[in-house]
Amino acid sequence: MRSGLPDGGTVATVGADRPGKGCRAVRVVSLICSATEIVCALGRRADLVGRSHECDYPPGIESLPVLTAPQFELGGASAEIDRRVKDLVRDGLAIYGIDADLLRDLRPDAIVTQDQCEVCGASLADVEAAVCDWTGIETRIVSCKPNGLDDLWTDIRRVGAALGAGDAAETLVAELQSRMSGIAVCAAALPERPSVATVEWIDPPMAAGHWMPELVDMAGGRNLFGEAGGKAPWISWEDLRGADPEVIVVLPCGFDIERSVAEMPALTAQPGWTGLRAVKNGRVFVTDGNRFFNRPGPRLAESLEILAEILHPAHFGFGWEGEGWRRYTG
Asked: Does domain 190-327 sit in CATH 3.40.50.300?
């Protein structure tokens, strides 16, 4: 078992000291989907006692108490959601609320959250505010900050250390890296590397950043927008049209395939859409960004599989068509 946590990220302990826990079960609250999936992939599903409103995987996790709620209306078009979120940020208001009373009642040994993106889920500051007056309860706050793939491996190890599952974390990291490197090696040997635009938000358009440029490269593509480890950049329609990508992959944060398809007219109505190479060649793809690409957890391995079979269907076939992605023909 590891002692202490890997370097990087944020870890804090609040409340009074508690006797050493050894290897006993740890009561865990996860306030971000990706962390919930990490906890479960480490074999510690039974330790979870609370979740965020968005945690929905693995199946059955929905039965856990819900501790967060969005402070804005989720319905409407992409542009409307974007405006509501920006209004909250502009006014200095929290995007997500935390049920502090329920959180205390659950008496967690560890709370896992994130301080990478204030739009993605409850932030470290939100959690610290919710537990600031606790006494008599020792709780470790583990905050993930996955800007790139290397950070994902660090986060898995950090969560594993907090749960006394350091060995399981090392095994999981090794398995994921092996799966992904196998795809990358095969893709690197292919002669074609199509140019790829990844669209993380449709209206206004945003390209994907963070780990996505790395995944595009590993899948055998040339990423056009966003830098590895950097924030997702806003782009204009003129930027997209000027780049004229060979492949467009649409993966809006929080949207499944059906929701994304419903939003596509915001792109397809733009002047010059039908003239893009990706459109003319039938290489526009809509994916389940909510389940895969936008969750920096174990399913980034599946996300890479999806990208590989989208970019190089003659060489990769993992069976994700229909479930993870769909060719857009609208």
From this structure: no
